[in-house]
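Standup, Tuesday
Yesterday: got the pipeline producing structure tokens again.
Today: sanity-check two examples.
Blockers: none.

Example 1:
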Amino acid sequence: MLVLCPAMVTSLAACVGPPEGEDYDVDAAEQAAVVDNALTSNALTSNALTSNALTSNALTSNALTSNALTRSALRDPLARQLLRYVVSCALPRGAHFDIDVDGVVYGFDGGIGLHKNWGDAGGSCDNACKAWVSACVLSRVNYLGIPTPISMRGNRCELSSDSAERTAYATREGAYYGNIFANPPLYFACVSPEQTSIQRVCGPSLDDCVVTVVGNCGDACDKPRSDGSFEKCRDHARSASGQFPSGTIAYDGSVTIFLQ
């Protein structure tokens, strides 16, 4: 059965359009690509939210605050920033919950909906959830913490795009993938074959990037889809002989970013 994702438009986070072949309003397409991507590098590296805090509980206020470690972690503004992006990537637009931390209520909103069931009572984040939410979160890191219009694409209906958006956002930046829930967390990216840097995420140098840039996406991933997004990106690039090193891991969830 074919399940179509509804187009969602919001200034903070959005499902980028309907599946290919379905057109919709050009203005809506452009708005849908304006996704909040001001997650700072410090929020990723602070380790304020441990893997247990993120994965052992349902993504609901009661489940999160039932864990004393999580409640303590959420006193850190960097932890709350990271959780805001996790929730936005995982839960759909309209989903919302509040968490009381020492008498202060913080709200968290869904947006893209890459794993809607995580927010259900007793919900959990399986391996597919971890892969897609990780890729989504990593793709929204911004070196300067300044939002930049981006088009998020990948092999999910929530990340599909129409012709208007693909025309408006034609500069492919790179692909993002990994496992932010692992201990230690795994952050990977590859550079689009026609690019030499990822300034939005890494700043002036790939060497000091918060994510490990494994090389050219053409050498790290399967061939791109019709929308230009890469699939099954890996933690190592192919060698000159075209082979991947032994032990190379492929990630089913990867998000490719396009810029204006």
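Example 2:
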Amino acid sequence: MIDPASGLPPLTWLRAFEESARHLSFTRAANELGLTQSAVSQHVRNLEAYLGRDLFVRKTRMLELTEDGANYLPSIREAFALIASGTRAFTGSPSGEIVRVQCNMAFSVFWLTPRLHRLYARYPWLVLDIVTPIWDPERHASQAAMEIRFGRPEEMPESAERLTTDNFFPVCTPDYQNGNVNLETAILFDCAGTTGTWEAWCQAGGLKFNRSGHINLASTYVISVNAALNNAGMAMAHDSLVSDLLEKGQLVRPFEAEVKLAEGYYLFPPSPHAMTPAREAFLNWLREETESGIETVL
């Protein structure tokens, strides 16, 4: 209800507007707020009716801020920031916790840590405890606020959110075998227990695979990809792990062929009743990074 004396619209309307402006999508805003898309849309319409101005231009697949919406947004964000600052000053903590994230080791090393500077630029108060079990991921999962796990769709519960959809392909350093890579003589590395193997890649490309029994195995991509980085041979890798390394020129793809990877990285998010400001901050950032940098979705 609106309090006529205060002249302020309900906080739920303002939150719906701010999140919708952040994502330029009622659907994504609804996911952030734990509401339905129709509820968020109605909150924004109520706010527009209260203000007597349109805040968004509604297009088929996205939203666009109107001039009034763009002018109104900074004051709303400033107000929310002031509330958050006042709460931190009152409680002595912005979050009340250190967020433990149980995360696949390769994803932690090759995707997460290279992007943490962007996380802390946005949330400098956030503190993480990143745990990376290789085997038996269930052992400590109950102690973590959330988890990022690598696996096939059929291995994941319905509550898991897929973060990535990748292709797999060989990688090596630019000067491996003096830049003239020979598949018959190269040292090869596979990550054990995955479907993205040298044999699968060769079969998909119609190549005769005659290296069976002569491929080095690693229990994690951290080992196999690092072997390639140190010029020990070629590793089979996938987009989300090596995109940064390829962009920097530390690794190259000696062959153009790529195959869709059955596995992906999945998010096991906290239940809604267990959400905290710190957990919500990390999840917001993670979702935005995966949506812009890989293919989504945690």
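Quick observation on example 2: The CA atoms of residues 166 and 239 lie 5 Å apart. DSSP finds eleven helices and twelve strands in the chain.
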